[in-house]
Design a protein that fits this description.
The complex is a heterotrimer of chains A (316), B (283) and C (375). Chain A has helices spanning 32-38, 44-64, 76-81, 84-116, 121-140, 142-153, 158-165, 180-204, 208-216, 221-250, 253-259, 266-275, 285-314. Chain A is mainly α and 316 residues long. Classes of the chains: A mainly alpha (316), B mainly alpha (283), C alpha+beta (375).
């Protein structure tokens, strides 16, 4: 290559900015349409990868949901998926997801706010510890959590024992680690840290000038939150809740580790179609169930995007 | 200029004792919340430790399957990391430099793995993949790349935005550097915190991913913990705590390193969890 | 567009003031006193026994480089920070113990302080809402204020739809809506474009004078401070070096720091003569302004416009740089002895003094400030 340092604008498409050296493209001499397409060459590997390993499986599920074992079109899969034990699965899943998104949502917000507003020398240390802890718990997975809880809240475990020593016989009240109530309790263990992590950026978007301006104009703490802080945070809070909901809905490992697939949750039920005993004529019900789950989450993501747009406008 | 230096000198005298200070609010509620949260989270840990007993920890390392499953997980993490980096770094840089209009599309694509739960993904994957892939353990690595992609993209994207890669590249070009030199010497070094974040998220993800591995019938570390021996819960608990502690230490290490680095370079602090996962994958 | 922004400006400035605020001009203003404020952060003193008295209806600017403590002082007056010692008196009463939201002061922040979830109208009406004024009355007063700052058409818009200059005008209206006893401005124009800054400067000053509100204004831009204020306090390292009218600050600076911070100043080595009452500088002997050292090596501080320069074959100076500044041209002249001096002349007179021309620099016989020489 000649050391042609006075060369300018060598991208395939003429771009403004004379004097700035762009990188040489071997396609400089190619005809215009080829050059235009060639610009997208850079993202082609990525798109191809996603297409093959994400889109294709997804399409297969959508298609398979409407197929019988021999490939003909049918509604029966959907029919089964929306009735009986599978309907129960959906109901339970939605219920658990709702509970374990709203409650952790509130607690997560409180914790995040607590560390965010801490001042003083211990404050940075506190933030660091809480953020890392949140990352560990939120990120790591349901398996160790499940075992931690078996060890503490199992029917003959320590915490259960302590609680009954002070008169709270939780198992007597119908609590069991291996039923919905237990599952919910364990879910909260990773949902709360997740909430802390995802709401922190929104809190950081709350400018101190707003608080001070409000104070200056006569607002007390409560009034600030009611008129400014709360409304501004609300879209972010809602979008975080949606993420929590999706996270709970899709969760599999925790429930599986705790119950080995015996409770009616949609994600668990889907799993049984891979390795469990499948009834004849219902081979593809798992895919119908999957389709249902994807549809629910997709709808929620639409709302998520809407909330995100609103908060992005305000929390610039 | 004696008078000037005297004026310019920062007063080193100690501050006078406060004559009267306005009462500053010290909200108690903050510590109550943190205390309750602390108890809620530490209690099961403590109980689990008591339950498992010290001997169980020793037992963990000698139990059959521990080594092989851990090793498998580590290998998977390494392969996943390599593929993810090879795929995402050029793509993200390219988008930032040449195709900024595709950023919206990219962000939309990165939402997909979140909309599609891992349990659903594995069903689809096992349906369409050829037998050769299906029976190979590397299928997991391939799909883990898909799971990791949103986090890697966000980490890299945040890092690129923080360093204004377009200007840096143009500056580098105006000084005569070719694109490989620019990528290697200018862009990548400045992305180090973003890369670090992405790396650790990938490691945590792979080491903790249970759903797809178990349904694909592969014996990775999390799968081993759950399935190897249903009768000896203590070993399982000990193994879980071990995994948890190791992850915690590694994450703390990375956080400290990255904050020290960004403080030194004065760059925008891409905190480890500013690229927090939108959803927990391993759960 | 900047020019269109204040399109309503002249008109509103001339119309009768809004009914609700008509009385304010006639109302007795509020005096503010800062007494020996001290604030330390660790070993550094942000404020060092700073004292200042502001007369009712006055606009006082605190001017200084960043880190000099001016913002700290302002925030202490507002109630967002607390002094380690000293007090703030408003109308003679100590407000140091009063919470920020009860001090009845209006504040305009540097930027982005408008509540993003409210329209301009609601933002302006917020303070009124806190005071319990009903919706209809609030809307009306807020509308009048927006009109006063020339933003009536933007009443329903949200902050993210407004430009920086517009946002600051809304912020100003919001601060004034509560008819505060004191108006505090924390570098409100720093984040704006030059042209917008100029227009807003005028508008703030006009409004302030019309309403007669006692105002404390913090800035690092000396042009701003000098053009807007009744008095200016120049601060450095937590202390006030001089508090005076802009005029006095410029022509009779009390210390070398003030002299060099405000405007451009030449520093010319000189020799004291006549027992320290006169100084010999660039070949001329002139009287010395009282207040400086009377012995030792000194520099004379002379403003560029106070020097004269004429082309002269026998002159001891050579023009090295000529900078066109509009009506005035700034010439840098190198004298024998390698002293460089900056002289401002009318552009018409500077036409022939191109770089390389031999010139003679002169100094009229008025007292100059001297300071100990910098080595």
């Amino acid at each position: 290559m000649t050391a042609d340092t006075t060369d300018t604008v060598t991208t395939p498409e003429p771009v403004s900015g004379s004097g700035v050296r762009r990188f040489r493209s071997p396609l400089r001499a190619a005809p215009a349409p080829v050059r235009h397409l060639a610009r997208y060459a850079g993202v082609a590997p990525f798109l191809a990868y996603i297409a093959v390993f994400l889109i294709v499986p997804l399409v297969a599920i959508v298609v398979g949901a409407f197929q019988t074992a021999d490939g003909s079109f049918t509604w029966s899969n959907l029919d089964v998926a929306l009735h009986g034990v599978y309907l129960q699965g959906y109901e339970q899943s939605l219920e658990v997801s709702a509970i374990t998104s709203i409650i952790p949502g509130i607690f997560g917000l409180l914790i995040a706010y607590a560390i965010f507003t801490a001042r003083g020398r211990a404050a940075t240390w506190l933030r660091q510890v809480v953020i890392t802890a949140s990352g560990v718990f939120a990120n790591f997975g349901g398996v160790p959590l499940a075992f931690l809880f078996i060890a503490s809240f199992g029917s003959s475990a320590l915490v259960t024992g302590w609680l009954s020593n002070i008169g709270l016989n939780i198992y007597g009240w119908g609590f069991s680690l291996y039923t919905m109530s237990g599952i919910s309790l364990v879910y909260m263990y990773f949902q709360i840290p997740l909430m802390v992590l995802i709401i922190l950026p929104a809190l950081e978007g709350l400018r101190p000038a707003w608080r001070e301006a409000a104070q200056n104009l006569g607002a007390g703490s409560w009034q600030f939150w009611r008129f400014v802080g709360g409304p501004v945070l609300l879209p972010s809070f809602m979008s975080c809740l949606i993420l929590l909901f999706g996270s709970a809905l899709a969760a599999y490992a925790t429930a599986e580790a705790l119950t080995s697939g015996t409770i009616p949750l949609t994600s668990i039920q889907i799993g049984t179609f891979l390795n469990g005993n499948v009834q004849a004529g219902q081979e593809n019900v798992g895919q119908a169930l999957s389709l249902g789950m994807v549809v629910i989450i997709a709808v929620m993501m639409v709302f998520y995007v809407l909330f995100q747009r609103r908060s992005a406008k305000w929390l610039r | 200029m004696a008078s000037v230096t005297r004026d310019l000198g920062i007063a080193m005298t100690p501050a006078p004792p406060p004559v009267r200070r306005q009462k500053r609010s010290h909200p108690v509620w903050r510590w109550v919340i943190l205390l309750v949260a602390g108890v809620y989270f530490l209690l099961p840990l403590y109980a689990a430790l008591r339950f498992a007993g010290i001997s169980a920890f020793g037992g963990v390392f000698t139990t059959p399957g521990f080594g092989s499953s851990l090793w498998l997980s580590v290998k998977l993490a390494a392969v996943t990391w390599v593929i993810t980096m090879l795929l995402m770094i050029p793509t993200t840089v390219y988008i930032h430099l040449r195709l900024p209009q595709l950023r919206r599309l990219l962000e939309g694509i990165t939402i997909l793995p979140i909309v599609i739960p891992p349990v659903v993904l594995i069903i689809g994957v096992l349906q369409v993949m050829p037998l050769a892939l299906r029976s190979s353990v590397w299928l997991l690595a391939i799909e883990y790349v898909v799971l990791a992609m949103p986090f890697a993209y966000r980490a890299l994207d945040a890092g690129l935005r923080a360093i204004d890669v377009k200007t840096l590249t143009e500056a580098s070009g105006s000084l005569g550097a070719g694109w490989i030199t620019t990528l290697w010497r200018v862009i990548l070094p400045n992305l180090s915190t973003g890369l670090l974040s992405a790396t650790i998220l990938i490691v945590a993800l792979v080491l903790g991913e249970f759903t797809m591995a178990s349904l694909d019938l592969q014996q990775t570390f999390p799968v081993w913990i759950v399935l190897f021996d249903q009768t000896n819960a203590q070993i399982s608990v000990a193994a879980s705590i071990f995994a948890l502690v190791v992850t915690w230490l590694v994450l703390m290490l990375i956080t400290v390193l990255s904050s020290r680095r960004s403080r030194r370079s004065g760059g925008a602090e891409v905190t480890l969890f500013s690229v927090a996962p939108r959803e927990t994958i391993g759960n | 567009m900047a020019t269109n922004e204040l399109a309503g400006d002249k008109a509103t400035a001339d119309t009768a003031p809004a009914a609700g605020l008509a009385g304010q001009g006639a109302r007795e203003g509020t005096s503010v006193s800062l007494r020996s404020l001290t604030r330390a952060f660790g070993a550094t003193r942000a404020l060092d026994e700073m004292s200042l008295d502001i007369e009712p209806g006055e606009l006082v600017a605190l001017l200084g480089p960043s880190g000099c403590g001016k913002t700290t002082a302002l925030r202490i007056v507002a109630g967002f920070e607390f002094a380690d010692s000293g007090e703030v008196l408003v109308d003679g009463r100590d407000v140091s113990g009063v919470a920020a939201n009860k001090r009845d002061m209006g504040m305009v922040f540097q930027s982005y302080s408008l509540f993003p979830n409210m329209s301009a109208l609601d933002n302006v009406g917020f303070g009124l809402r806190m005071r319990g004024i009903g919706t209809a009355g609030r809307r009306k007063q807020a509308a009048e204020l927006l009109d006063m700052v020339g933003l009536a058409p933007q009443a329903r818009q949200f902050p993210h739809q407004l430009s920086g200059g517009q946002q600051q005008r809304v912020a100003l209206a919001r601060a004034l809506a509560i008819q505060p006893r004191v108006l505090l401005l924390d570098e409100p124009l720093s984040a704006l474009d030059a042209k917008v800054r100029l227009q807003l400067r005028e508008q703030i000053r006009t409004l302030q004078q019309r309403l007669g509100t006692t105002t404390l204004f913090v800035t690092h831009d000396q042009e701003e401070a000098l053009s807007m204020s009744d008095r200016v306090g120049v601060m450095r390292s937590g202390k006030l070096e001089q508090v005076a009218t802009p005029d006095e600050l410029y022509s009779r600076p009390a210390t070398a720091f003030v002299a060099e911070f405000v405007g451009t100043m030449n520093r010319l080595p000189g020799e004291l003569t006549d027992g320290g009452r006169a100084v010999s500088v660039i070949g001329v002997t002139v009287p010395v302004q009282a207040g400086g050292p009377d012995s030792g090596a000194v520099d004379a501080l002379v403003r560029p416009e106070n020097l004269t320069v004429t082309p002269s074959e026998t002159g001891d100076g050579i023009v090295t740089v000529r900078t066109f500044l509009g009506a005035v041209t700034r010439l840098t002249v190198r004298l024998s002895g390698d002293t460089e001096v900056v002289v401002d002349v009318a552009t018409t007179a500077a036409a022939e003094m191109t770089p390389g021309t031999a010139v003679q620099v002169g100094l009229p016989q008025s007292p100059v400030l001297v300071a100990a020489r910098e080595s």
